[in-house]
Amino acid sequence: MTEPHAMFWSGETLRKHLKVLVKPFDPERVDCAAYTLSVGSEVYVSPNDQSADPKTVTVRKLAQDEAFTIPPGQFAFLITEEVVTVPDSALAFISIRAKTKFRGLVNVSGFHVDPGYKGQLTFSVFNAGPVPVHLKQGQPIFLIWYASLDQKTTFKKNGPVKKGIDTELIVGIADELQSFAGLSKKIENVKNDLTERIHSVERSLEIYRFSAHIALTIALMIAAGLVVAWLSPILSKSIQGNFGL
Q1: 111-126, pLDDT tens digit by residue?
Q2: Which of 60, 79, 156, 184 is surrounded by the most beta carbons within 10 Å?
Q3: Fold category of 11-177 in CATH
C-alpha cells in the first residue's frame, strides 16, 4: 500500500485506507482527521477500599453494552473493540475524546502506536476527577490519528496480533489504591472512632469519680460511727462525774 506523503492523514485518506486497517470499520466514525474507537469487551479497574478482597480483583469480561465505573483516584485498563493495524510506512497517535477527559479520565499509557503493530489497543487510564466515571462496552471514547513516515521502515513491530488485556500489566497495581476521597473517608472514620473512644473514657472517669465519692462518703460515715462509738463511754463517764451521778 502506497501512503500519502503528507504527515497526518486527512479524513478522506482515513476513509480510503482504514477499511483494511481497522476492523470493524465504520466510515461514520471518521472525526475530522481522526478515527473514533470504542470500548472493548474486557476491563480491569484497580481495587479500592470498597473491594471485598483487592487481591481477587482481575480482568473481567463485559457483555454487549454492559456498563462499569472507574472510581475517583483509581486506575483502569481498557481495550478497544477494534483490531488496529499500523502499516510499516506510518505511525499512529492515540488519545481519549475531550468530553470524556473533561470528566477527569486521563490517558497515562503511551500516546503512539508503532509501525507494524496489529491488534486491539490497551489504554491505561486514571480517574483524576472527584466522581466516578461511567462507561460501557461499545462506547466510542478513543481517538486514533495516522501519520505517514518518510519511507517504509524495517524498524517495526513483528509480533502476533494482540488480543485482550495482558494480565502482566495489572501485577503492579493489584493491591488496593487509595484515592483522596478514600483517604479522606478513612481519616474521618479514624476521627469519629477516636472521638467515641475519648467520650467512652470520659464516661468511665465520671463513673469512677461517682464511685469514689460514694466510697468516700461511706468510709466517712463508718469512721464517724466508730468515733461516736469510741467517744460515747468516755462522754458518759465524764457526764456522770460532773453531775455526781
Answers
A1: 999 999 999 999 999 9
A2: 79
A3: Deoxyuridine 5'-Triphosphate Nucleotidohydrolase; Chain A (2.70.40)
